[in-house]
Amino acid sequence: MINKSPVSSTKADTLLKLKNMVKNSKIVRGLSFNFYEWKNHEEKILDGVQKEFNPRRIIIRSSAVGEDTKEWSMAGQFESVLGVDSRKREEIRSSVN
Fold it and tell me: What's the whole-model pTM score?
């Protein structure tokens, strides 16, 4: 379910909301999970990443609740790891951790 509150929205939520609204840009598919999900279901998430994106290179980015609001944008404030090989579990794992 997408959180409708702009104050408690993540970048992933924002992109999902915008996906069908933008006309002159493309928002590519993504996969998102929170800290709790990663810590408790890491292997399942790695399976999902590999199923969805193998054999492409991907970007792993961190995010936070409230990252984008009407009042401010925190673009560039969180880490992104470019060119992660989706065939390599350890590369994905180390990029997330």
Answer: 0.75
